[in-house]
Each structure stands twice: as structure tokens, then as C-alpha cells.
Design goal:
Blueprint: E1 3-7, E2 10-12, E3 18-25, E4 34-39, E5 46-51, E6 58-60, E7 68-73, E8 78-83, E9 92-100, E10 108-111, E11 115-119
Amino acid sequence: QAQVVESGGGLVQPGGSLRLSCEVSGITLSAFNMAWFRQVLGKEREFVAGITWTTTTTDYADFVKGRFTISRDNAKNTGYLQMNSLKPEDTAAYFCAAGGWGTTRNKWMYWGQGTQVTVSS
């Protein structure tokens, strides 16, 4: 059974940057696609970015294109989300997903518990 653990969240000012990490154990991450979603309390979990296991294909939600970058280090079984030019509307709990593909929650098999990102002055 896979375990997915996110880290790197925190409080940042508008315009600032954060890098989230997603450590996966129990499976060989290199064989799985992975993605980041985010969720605001009371709202649906929404797709942010995804990357295939080969790293040849990435996908981004329109609202993060040009600001966020998804990457992975298969040797470390770890994925990343570099977030730049953060806006207050980026405030949410960010979740890492592995094993699947698509922009909806039900397309992914493994999930972490999330890490909170708050963008505020």
C-alpha cells in the first residue's frame, strides 16, 4: 500500500514562492503518474498539475500556467510543485496524487493528507 506525504506548505506573501514536496513510499513512483490538486474548505478538490511517469508530458490548470511547475525525481520517489507569483486565491490545502491520470479526483488511486498553503500579507 502506498503512502503519500506532502510537505512544504506554509504562509507566504502575495508574489512569493513555495516549493511543495511529495514523498511516496510503498510503491515505485517511477512507474506511476502523479499530480497535484488543491481544495478550499467547502469546495470541490481541483486539479492543479500533472506529470507522467516518463516526465515527457505535463498538464496544468489554466489558473497556474506560467506560475507553477511540476517535476519529479524518480530516484528519490519524490515529486515537487514549484509555485511562483503566488496570489491570495492560491490559498488552499494542496494534495499529491499518484497512480492515475486525469483532472478529476476519481481518476487517481493514491492520495496524501495535504499541506496547507496560505497566501496573505
